[in-house]
Fold each of these.
Amino acid sequence: MRNMEFNEGYRVFNDITRAEKRSNRLVVLSLTFMLFSFLCCTYVVHRVNESAKNNFYLLDSGQKLATVRVKDYKRAIDILCEGHVGIFHELFFGLEPDLGFIKRNIEGKALFMVDRSGMRLYNRLVDQDYYEDIAKSGYSIELEKDSIIIDYSSYPFRFRFIGKQKIERDGETEYRNLVTTGYLMETKSTPNNLNGLKIVRFDVLDNRDLRK
């Protein structure tokens, strides 16, 4: 009788031991799976972040057209900065004899890409009736870019824009030199400024008529 009780107790003990071992294995497997899942998620997030760093928006007149991949980060920054400077100048200095068109381009787009130095220049030209004269006289001004030089050796990045304004009036074509300078600073990307850059301390160095 005592042997039967002993054997029964021994089996119960063995069953408890086996259950504990199965529980321990289950815990180890669960922890291993969780660790593996964590490592996989970390790897995926890292790959996504690295991929996102190489994605840059292709812009046209301030509007996002597509996403392009550029592996060279320095080249990507160069494209972004040159694009920002070029688009700003096209919006600000490329004019048509239409006050509504001018205001949409400058007030609705260009001034979001520049600090108060751009606003001061715009207000000064408005006070001088510059835009009204263009609208009344039927002038059409097209911007021609020669070069954009950006110095990345110090921040904010200093730039120089060199180009010309092609002026069509009364069936004749005239040219005006356009050389500007300023600095580029990083800012938050917004619907009105997708590049996440802003021109500061903007200044026009030369805007003289060119001799034929």
Amino acid sequence: MATTNDLKNGIVLNIDGQLWTVTSFQHVKPGKGSAFVRTTLKNVLSGKVVDKTFNAGVKVETANVDRSEMTYLYNDGVDYVFMEPDTYEQISVSPETVGDSAGYMLENSTVTLARHEGEPLYVELPASVELRIAHTDPGVQGDRSTGGSKPAELETGATVQVPLFIESGEKIKVDPRDGRYLGRVK
């Protein structure tokens, strides 16, 4: 248990049996009345975002979420298999838990796996990943109807928008949170 004074970004709360991550908070002391804390919470499992207000000093239940570095091994056709690098223990994670991160994970890449009471919650990738382009159509000079970008399929199967000068076989940097092209990798 913690009080609303202990709230900070990234802390996970257990509210009515559901896990919520604090994405932003603000302590408010109005001229009249008692102080309160205005928060923006994101549901850990569904991704739903809500605003919630707590009275100052109220106790809130925190959840113990363990984040550990894991190595992504392979997809066995049903689940994604990760390995603890220290103990070599393997854990299978469902596609629903992995979510959109699957499109940006290469075999033997390091990811962060968040677990609550041993149950996998979500997979967190680094801020940028380097992937090779499997296929993209050649860019036509003068074709600016799409803002100077074209779709490209990555080696993992995900599709991202890239500038017209990018060709198949090149290695690029991508933001896995929104699938945004960040640049070429030399």
Amino acid sequence: MSKLWTAPEDDPRTFGEPVGEKATYREYLGNYRLTIEMKCDGLDAEQLGRRSVPPSTLSLLGLVRHLAQMENHWFQRVLQGRTDAPCLYTHEDDPDWDFGGADPDPAVVKDAFATWKAEIAKADEWLDALDEADLGREVPADGGSHATRDVLVHVIEEYARHAGHADLLRECIDGRTGL
């Protein structure tokens, strides 16, 4: 028998009626970030680093590292043009080092969560200052350009996809399922 990872009345996510396009993006993004955090809650380093759906190399810890990298790439490098800093969790010998380097070590776990939270804080600071009228502003990316709103939707889509992965990974670890 599986168990829910949170009772519906204790769910910290919001499902309100956001007013405006930016507020809608913020609510969905915030809810998906919380979902990932909740899926990882209460697990130790070994459980977070466990690749529980073989032959996949996915782990919850790898997802956190990947999401930190993704937040950094889209919010810092693309939307703000800060390309001078090195990319997070990359290694020239392993293109999937965000997942491959997710060793079940308490220090790796601490670093991953601190980095992810720091990237979220930087992204939220930028989003707070973003004027809704700038959602159509084009930014260079991938040899072309994309509207800011398209980048935000992509980030939300990335979280949504990985929240589904997190559901399966967590259930394989301890039987807990999502809502």
Amino acid sequence: MLHLKLATDPRWVNIVEKNIEEILTDHAWCEQKAATNAITIITLNSEYPDLVTDLLLLAQEELEHFQMVHNIIKKRGYTLGRERKDSYVNELYKFMNKGGSRLQSMVDRLLFSAMIEARSCERFKLLSKELKDPELSKFYHDLMISEAGHYTTFIGFARKYGQDIDVDQRWQELVEFEAEVIKNYGKEETIHG
């Protein structure tokens, strides 16, 4: 369903398990950034009422996820660390068309967002299956389902409003680009790292 070209090496979970506090802090900030991204898309494309409505709900859900991760951090006696830079997302951002039409920019932003959700979903699935911690395993299973819904929302709006753009071709180009980017990741205890 997610159409990712390169799967995460399952050994990444071994890295994650060595520093649960770090993965939780990174994850919390990923959720905050996802909420901010949805709000940015709304701000730039407020003339689409259905997009605004659905992305407001998505942003709220991302903030709820941020709170859920923060609650786990507190429950375990950890402290939410400082915001983390997400090099994967920054590299993926380079794919976006900066000089195209407003519509092209919107479609690219939606596809960029769908890709991040797809990779997060794939990583959460791996965590849900491979983590030895039952609480976190269930937590990531539940979030995996949510991320899949977010992926569908973003790609659905790209297809709906990108009628004059070959959205499927652009998506395939992004899938190829992401496959090259992700080859450099999977070595750190971060959601995308």
